[in-house]
Amino acid sequence: xxxxxxxxxxxxxxxxxxxxxxxxxxxxxxxxxxxxxxxxxxxxxxxxxxxxxxxxxxxxxxxxxxxxxxxxxxxxxxxxxxxxxxxxxxxxxxxxxxxxxxxxxxxxx
Length: 109
Description:
Elements: H1 2-20, H2 26-48, E1 56-67, E2 74-84, E3 88-101, E4 104-107
Antiparallel strand pairs: 1-2, 2-3, 3-4
C-alpha cells in the first residue's frame, strides 16, 4: 500500500510540475496551425467559390521551441507538408510564435 501511495504522489507531482513550465506539445501546435489553415481555406473558398479543403496539412512535426527574449512568448519551429492545388505537396520549416493564454496556447502575430 505504501508503494502505491508513493507512486501516486510522484505521478501527481510530476504532472503539476510539467503543467507549470512546459512548452506546447506537437498536438497543440498542430491544432493552432490547422486553425490558420482552416481560416485560409474559408477565405479562399469564398473568393474562388469552391467548396471543401483547398489546402490540406499532410505532415506536421514539432522541431523545437525557444523562449523569446524579454517576453513570455515561445518561438517554435515546425516542419509542415501542405498539399495545395496545382502546386502539390510543399514541405517547409515554419516559425510559430506562441504564448500561453487563459484557455491554452495561442498564436502571436
